[in-house]
Automatic annotation (TrEMBL):
<comment type="similarity">
    <text>Belongs to the G-protein coupled receptor 1 family.</text>
</comment>
<keyword id="KW-1003">Cell membrane</keyword>
<dbReference type="InterPro" id="IPR017452">
    <property type="entry name" value="GPCR_Rhodpsn_7TM"/>
</dbReference>
<dbReference type="GO" id="GO:0004984">
    <property type="term" value="F:olfactory receptor activity"/>
</dbReference>
<dbReference type="Pfam" id="PF13853">
    <property type="entry name" value="7tm_4"/>
</dbReference>
<dbReference type="InterPro" id="IPR000725">
    <property type="entry name" value="Olfact_rcpt"/>
</dbReference>
<feature type="transmembrane region" description="Helical">
    <location>
        <begin position="25"/>
        <end position="51"/>
    </location>
</feature>
<feature type="transmembrane region" description="Helical">
    <location>
        <begin position="100"/>
        <end position="122"/>
    </location>
</feature>
<dbReference type="GO" id="GO:0004930">
    <property type="term" value="F:G protein-coupled receptor activity"/>
</dbReference>
<feature type="domain" description="G-protein coupled receptors family 1 profile">
    <location>
        <begin position="43"/>
        <end position="300"/>
    </location>
</feature>
<dbReference type="GO" id="GO:0005886">
    <property type="term" value="C:plasma membrane"/>
</dbReference>
<keyword id="KW-0472">Membrane</keyword>
<keyword id="KW-0812">Transmembrane</keyword>
<feature type="transmembrane region" description="Helical">
    <location>
        <begin position="244"/>
        <end position="267"/>
    </location>
</feature>
<feature type="transmembrane region" description="Helical">
    <location>
        <begin position="198"/>
        <end position="223"/>
    </location>
</feature>
<keyword id="KW-1133">Transmembrane helix</keyword>
<keyword id="KW-0807">Transducer</keyword>
Length: 323
C-alpha cells in the first residue's frame, strides 16, 4: 500500500462500491441480483438456441433478435463477476488493467446493442413499407454485414477509452461509485486534465447512441406514415403490433441511458454529484446495464407468438423425455 502515499500514481487496483446506504443489506440484495443474472443469461441463451434450431425462424426479424440476445449475454457476462463479488462476497478490489478491460467490454456491448436496435428498426420499416421485397432486401449476407458493422463500430469507438485513461495520473482516491467499471466513473478519479476524455466521451455518445436514436425515431416516423396509409383499421393495428416488442426494447435501453447521461453532464464529472443523491446515480447505471438483458427476452417471449410456441414445445419435449 506504499504506492498510495504518492500524490500521483497509476493505482494497482480500484475499489468498487455497492449501493450507498445499504451496505449492510448487500448479502440480501445479491439474491435478486443473482436471479436477474440467471434470467438474463438463461433467457437469452434459450432464444439463441430456439432461433438456431428452428429453420422456420431463420428470417431477418428473428436473426436480428438472436444478435440482440448475444449482445445482452455479453453485457451480462461483463458485469456479473464484479457485481456478485461486491454484493455476495464483499470483495471490492479490481486490478487496474482488469478494470479497463471490463470497461471496454461493457461499453462495447452497449454500443453494439444500440446499433442492433437501429438495425431492428430498419427491419420493421422494410417489413411494413415493402413486405413483398422484405427477404429480398434483408438477405442473410446483408444481415451479417450489419451485425459485423455493429461489432466493429463498437470495438473501434471504445478502444481509445482505456488508452486515454492509462495516460492520466490518479490521486489517492481509488473508490469507484459502482460495482463495475464505468468510464465516467473511472475518469473522475484522475488528477490530471480530463478535457480530452470528456470531449471524446461526448463525441462517442453523439456518434453512436445519438446517431442511432435519431435514425430509430426517423424509422418509426416513416413506419407511422406508412401505417396511416393503410386503409383498414385492422391492418393498421396488425402492422403496429409487430413493432410493440421493439419499441419496448428501445425504451428499456434508452431511458436509463439518457437519464444517466444527463446526470453525468449536470454533475460535470465531479464527485460527489451536487444535484442528485448518489443512490439515484448508482441505480440508473445498474438499470442501464442490467435491466435490458433481463427484460428483452421476457418482452419477446410474451409478445412474439412464434418464439413463445417454440419455447413451450421445447419444454414439453424435455418433460416428455424425462418422464
Amino acid at each position: 500500500m506504499s504506492v498510495l502515499n504518492g500524490s500521483h500514481y497509476q493505482p494497482p487496483f480500484f475499489l468498487l462500491s455497492g449501493i450507498p446506504g445499504l451496505e449492510d443489506a448487500h448479502a440480501w440484495i445479491s439474491i435478486p441480483l443473482s436471479v436477474m443474472y440467471v434470467i438474463a443469461i438463461l433467457g437469452n441463451s434459450i432464444i439463441i438456441h430456439i432461433i438456431h434450431k428452428n429453420p422456420s425462424l431463420h428470417e431477418p426479424q428473428y436473426i436480428f433478435l438472436s444478435m440482440l440476445a448475444v449482445t445482452d449475454t455479453g453485457m451480462s457476462a461483463s458485469t456479473l463477476p464484479t457485481v456478485l463479488n461486491v454484493f455476495l462476497l464483499n470483495h471490492r478490489e479490481i486490478e487496474f488493467h482488469g478494470c479497463l478491460a471490463q470497461m471496454f467490454f461493457i461499453h462495447t456491448f452497449s454500443s453494439m446493442e444500440s446499433a442492433i436496435l437501429l438495425a431492428m428498426a430498419f427491419d420493421r420499416f422494410v417489413a411494413i413499407r415493402n413486405p413483398l421485397r422484405y427477404t429480398e432486401i434483408l438477405t442473410c449476407s446483408r444481415i451479417a454485414q450489419m451485425g459485423l458493422a455493429a461489432m466493429v463500430r463498437g470495438a473501434a469507438l471504445m478502444a481509445p477509452l482505456p488508452i486515454l485513461l492509462k495516460r492520466l495520473p490518479f490521486c489517492k482516491n481509488i473508490i469507484l461509485s459502482h460495482s463495475f467499471c464505468f468510464h465516467p466513473d473511472v475518469m473522475k478519479l484522475a488528477c490530471g486534465s480530463i478535457r480530452v476524455n470528456i470531449i471524446y466521451g461526448l463525441a462517442l455518445v453523439l456518434c453512436s447512441f445519438g446517431v442511432d436514436s435519431v435514425f430509430i425515431v426517423l424509422s418509426y416516423a416513416l413506419i407511422l406514415k406508412t401505417v396511416l396509409g393503410i386503409a383498414s383499421r385492422e391492418g393498421r393495428l396488425k402492422a403496429l403490433n409487430t413493432c410493440i416488442s421493439h419499441i419496448l426494447t428501445v425504451l428499456i435501453f434508452y431511458v436509463p441511458l439518457i437519464a444517466l447521461a444527463l446526470i453525468h453532464r449536470i454533475g460535470k464529472y465531479h464527485s460527489p454529484l451536487p444535484h442528485f443523491p448518489p443512490i439515484l446515480y448508482v441505480l440508473l447505471a445498474n438499470m442501464h446495464f442490467l435491466i435490458p438483458p433481463v427484460m428483452n427476452p421476457i418482452v419477446y417471449v410474451v409478445k412474439t407468438k412464434q418464439i413463445r410456441d417454440k419455447i413451450l414445445k421445447l419444454f414439453i419435449e424435455k418433460g416428455t423425455e424425462e418422464s
